[in-house]
Amino acid sequence: MRFDLFYDYLCPFVYRTSVLLQNVRDSGERDLEIRWRYFSLTQVNSKDEGWTVWDAAVSEDARGRLAFKAAEAARRQNAFDDFHMSLLRARHVDRADIDDVPVVERVAEDSGLDLERFRRDMADPRILAALERDHRGGATEHGVFGTPTFVFPDGSSAYVRLAEAPDPAASLALFDRLISVAAEEPRILEIKRPVKPSPD
Fold first, then answer.
1. Does 13 reside within a domain?
2. Is 188 a member of any domain?
3. Domain extent at residue 56
4. pTM score of the predicted model
5. Which DSSP category does 177 fall into?
6. Is 131 helix (H, G, I), strand (E, B) or coil?
7. Is residue 189 assigned to a domain?
8. Which element (helix H / strand E) includes 3?
9. Would 194 be classed as within a structural domain?
10. Within its chain, how far is the Cα of 98 from the centroid?
11. Are strands 33-38 and 2-7 parallel, antiparallel or unpaired?
12. What sign has the CA pseudo-torsion 101, 76, 14, 27?
């Protein structure tokens, strides 16, 4: 099965979905071809219409930007998959600050990347071109507004929020149910669970 998945490292729902997909892949029961596509929630939430995460000054604080740069640097070393899951775990399991250069470099080193090349690539002013391409394309071509968003080869798409990261035993069945609705049933536009009010 092939699909694009738009994501931001800051998003807990992305982490949960990534665990689901890793569990499915590890099971060997489904052949997944995932194209991870960058999508900045900082950009989505910006109130300044002329400002972009990818063009903001290096000195400017832009949440999540460092992680996108790091992911693209890992891609240049053909090490994206290992780095991707490690950076997600650092953020959502270890509660590390992935806007901190030493944290991101430690993840890169632990993932087996050449740290000197990683640093050079991170400093490349063109490193954020992929973020701009993916983010703009996701928004204008597919209507992506949040993460994670699946986009399937036929153009259908689905924004998904899992309540928790599933354990390996439950992942395959959950994935199959998710795909049966998200990719194979275009008449269902939205399912949202109401939250019961807490008693006073």
1. yes
2. no
3. 2-182
4. 0.93
5. H
6. helix
7. no
8. strand 2-7
9. no
10. 14
11. parallel
12. negative
